[in-house]
Amino acid sequence: MTVTAFASETEERFALARQVADAVLFEGYVLYPYRASAAKNRLRWQFGVLVPPGWGAECEEHDFQHTECLMEPKAGATLSVEVRFLHARRRTVQRARPAGGYETVAELRLEDRVLMPWDEGNEERVEVVASVAELLGDGVTHPFRRPAREDTEPVLDAAGRTVGRLVRRCEEISGTVRLSARELDGPYRALRLTAVVENTSDWTPPEGRAADRDAALPRALVATHLLMALSAGSFLSMTDPPEWAKGAVAACRNLHTWPVLAGEPGRADLVLSSPIILEDHPAIAPESPGALYDATEIDEILALRTAALTDEEKREARGTDERAAAVIELADSMPPEVLERLHGAVRSLREVTGPDPAPRPGPAAPDGGFPDEFGVQRPDTPWWDPATDAGFDPERDRVVVAGRPVGKGSRVELHPGLRRTDAQDIFLRGRAAKVEAVLHDVDGGVHLAVTVEGDPGADIRREQGRYLYFQPDEVTPLEDLEDDV
Predict the structure, then answer these.
(1) In b/e form, how buried is each residue of 420-455, taking b as 16+ CB within 10 angstroms?
(2) Rounded Cα distance, 203 and 483, in Å
(3) Distant-in-sequence, close-in-space partners of 108: CB < 8 Å, separation ≥ 6
(4) In contact, 293 and 300? CB cutoff 8 Å
(5) How many helical (H) and strand (E) elements, i.e. helices and strands, does the chain have?
(6) Spatial contact of 205 and 55, defined as CB atoms under 8 Å apart
(7) Where are the alpha helices (DSSP H) in 286-347?
(8) Tens digits of residue pLDDT in 197-228
(9) What percentage of the chain has pLDDT greater than the value 70?
(10) Do residues 227 and 262 touch, judged by C-beta distance below 8 A?
């Protein structure tokens, strides 16, 4: 493959992945109600912020990201890396004086918008291309710099007269991308790829002044993330690796970021390393009509609430940022059929045709249904059919654990920690609990609602229906269930 052809193919793959990467880049960029004056928009940018090292030592934020993942490159393979981040651009608002010149003001009110001071995010990219052979040994180091700059934009009223101007200033930032790889021990030819992005700015807070995040942000790399593509070969999933690679995956160090396979499902030559935890092959919901930039990104709720803002609130939002203005326009112009599409979608439905749907694998249950992976009896109908709800009874359902039926009234020993949950797990491991109900979710999963023995608030929790939830493989039966049903 020629260099030009490889670059073209890589750009095509990156373009697809950027649809998701853009959501990472602008995660929480401007929150509903999309106004600069809103309290929630005064503390900005919480994800992937790499601060100057001279300030990071005094705070809980970091000056670097460290990604490690496994790859199986073919001979002569090339790695293309794209670092993406936002460079804060501080905007001040100035009003034109009648006698000439300008004065800085807290706001400038126009007929269609209200302009206020605001930090805009300017997208930046750093590209590094290296052969896999170059990554072995000392690897590749790529420094980069973005200079300080200032520009002005005139503000015109409806009649075309200059009534003010916007002054935008970017501070200088600098950083380094370090790429290296080393071969793993063992029979498989796999490499551990390490990618480090650092903020190397020499800025420090003025002497005698307390550390100020607001002053550090213009020198920070905001929402930093990586796209990495192999010209030949593949990456291994970090969440679902093959059996032989699980130990090597567990040994990888990922600090302040997490790599997942990106691009089309079924391909493994592209990785997105994101400060937000994602699953492999993340994708934008096809129902979403556009970016809403709010960290919750619940399209239907945000669209309805945005459309309900007052005219004055919309004026301020339009003047806050061009992306906020686009959200207002989107909400105001959304056709009813598009809004209806946001109400919800279930992606895992399988279409059943004909009178005899194909049975699920496994032995037939006595009632003609099929036991699931935990032995729960399921009726022989599509699980998404609302009528199947009648076949579930939380108080009478049973689940088979270690060959023994478990249901309401069973005593079990808790063994959490098989999945990533929370710190409470370490206090519950080995505790005895009573099963209060067997529940089923819409994805066909089974969950045990339990109360912990010895918990003085167990009776209150039971009355209120507030339980702890575990999957069947996270418990061990302590005694056989006396099935009186």
Answers:
(1) eeeeebeebeebebbbbbbebeeeeebbbbbbbeee
(2) 70
(3) 93, 94, 95, 114, 115, 116, 155, 163, 164
(4) no
(5) 11, 22
(6) yes
(7) 299-307, 311-320, 322-333, 336-341
(8) 999 999 988 775 556 788 889 999 999 999 99
(9) 84
(10) yes
The predicted-structure confidence for 398-412, as pLDDT tens digits, reads as follows 999 988 999 999 999
Cα–Cα separations (whole angstroms), residue 438 to 361, 374, 434? 23, 12, 12
Structure tokens at 391: 């076949």
Q: Do residues 69 and 79 lie in contact, with contact meaning Cβ atoms separated by under 8 Å?
A: no
Cα separations (Å) of 467 from 88, 268, 282, 450? 45, 40, 31, 6
Q: Are 399 and 475 in contact (CB under 8 A)?
A: no
Cross-strand partners of 234? 72
DSSP letters for 213-225: HHHHGGGSBEEEE
DSSP-derived pairing of the beta strands 222-230 and 270-274: antiparallel
- Residue 423 pLDDT class (50, 70, 90 cuts): low
* This model's pTM is above 0.90: no
CA 432, CA 415: separation in Å to the nearest integer? 10
